[in-house]
């Protein structure tokens, strides 16, 4: 069975067209906002990764410096006691 064609009044046509335009504008706004949010998110993520790598490098340098100074102290203490590391048998 076929449905009957519905003939819209001119006011109804205008109202439907206006609603469609409003929906299209809303969809465009949402798309632009989503793209902007994604772009800012990627920038934030890149900055966070960079900060994390810098933090790791700083931590590594601090550990190396600590180990170096601890080794120097140990060497001085051994020499102070009259023993050097080479005298161990």
Give the helices and strands, then pairings.
Elements: H1 10-80
Q: What features would you highlight for this structure?
A:
single chain, 89 residues, mainly alpha
Give an overview in words.
The protein has 89 residues and is mainly alpha-helical. The protein has one domain (10-87). It is 80% helix and 0% strand. It is built from one helix and no strands. It has one helix at residues 10-80. The radius of gyration is 37 Å and the shape is rod-shaped.
Q: Helix and strand succession?
A: H
Number of helices, where a helix is a run of at least 4 consecutive DSSP H or I residues = 1
Oligomer: single chain
Number of strands: 0
**Mean pLDDT, nearest integer?**
90
Task: Give a quick account of the main beta sheet: strands, pairing sense, barrel closure.
Answer: none
Question: What shape does the CA trace take?
Answer: rod-shaped
Number of domains: 1
The structure class reads: mainly alpha
Task: Determine the N-to-C terminus distance.
Answer: 106 Å
Q: Proportion of β residues?
A: under 5%
Percent of residues in helical segments? over 70%
Spans of at least 5 consecutive residues with low confidence = none
State Rg.
Answer: 37 Å
């Amino acid at each position: 069975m076929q449905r009957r064609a519905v003939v819209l009044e001119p006011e109804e046509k205008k109202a439907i067209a206006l609603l469609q335009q409003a929906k299209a504008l809303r969809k465009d706004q949402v798309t632009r906002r989503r793209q902007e949010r994604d772009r800012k998110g990627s920038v934030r993520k890149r900055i966070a990764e960079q900060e994390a790598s810098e933090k790791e490098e700083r931590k590594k340098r601090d550990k190396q410096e600590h180990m170096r100074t601890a080794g120097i102290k140990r060497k001085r203490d051994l020499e102070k006691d009259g023993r050097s590391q080479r005298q161990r048998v």
